[in-house]
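Let's inspect a concrete specimen:
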Amino acid sequence: MIRGFPRLISKCSIYLVVSLFLIINWIPSEAESIQYYAKQCNKIAGISINDFSCEDGKEIPIETKKNKDNLSQPCNNPSLLGKGNPCMTGSKLGMLTFNDDAIVIFICRKFNDSRATDGLYDEVAIIQHNKKSGATCWYQSDLKPSAPIPPNIKSPKDSDFVDEKNQIKWELPSNLEKHAKCVNCHTNDPFVGTPYIKNILEDFLRKNKYTYEDRIQGAYWSPYLEWNNLKHVEFLKESSGKQCTSCHRIALNPANENTCQRFLSESLGLKDETHPNIPRINAFMPPHNRDNLTIEKAKKILADIKSCCQEPDGERCKVSELNQKD
């Protein structure tokens, strides 16, 4: 026998086992695929996502007339995504389908100026929500696409790819938390009704008979993501912040302070210094007396709510589970 041959065989065996282990762990399992995720979400949400066209959505109107109180903002209802041109025209919001219990909303975003007239999009996202059970699923096109996205979109239940040329993939379910971080913004309920999309979104929800009470009182959870530990604060005693929490859930998300910091600031017309790339917009809350909202009053409301976000066990505060399943 050749001297050292057994040792060589032993080393080769080890390398082979390690290589097979790496290969097996590199190949995504069926349960990690976007198609498996979409098919399971279709069952649990009680509504399916099929192929669609961005052109079936309504163009999101951009109010370019500047408000005299906020001349620094580029438009009256900028996108608050923090990407590209916040006042870019041409983005579409659409209601893909709905039934008595569930709704599917999509958005095709344009935020690069080069998309102005080319009929293509920078990003596509979908929300699939059952208003009775609270089950919610998200879908997001590749956050670092290699090419712009044509308007005809393939269903995630049938394809790993967003577009017909198979250039842009849907993000894997595991990336929806790690990278897309959908719940960092969609913390209180599935739909974020900023001035950017508010009118179109509310029109879709009315057609679906999805009431305001459904949004602020209904269950909200995700069957396949790990963020189901959200709580929201309420105020037990009279305070400045109660005029917000009497109508809205202010969710406590351990991973970030988007609701307790950024969204509160934006809705009250205050600049959130923790997100310098997001433009300050005119106050859109509270809806009934915002004309009387001074900077001092807005700051008091913000401080009041943040106190309960930071110390939810305080005597004025109450913490409730947000994601109870019906």
Notes: Helices lie at 5-26, 34-45, 173-180, 198-207, 212-217, 242-245, 258-267, 295-310. Residues 11-28 have pLDDT under 50 and may be disordered. Residues 230 and 253 are 6 Å apart (CA to CA). The chain has eight helices and ten strands.
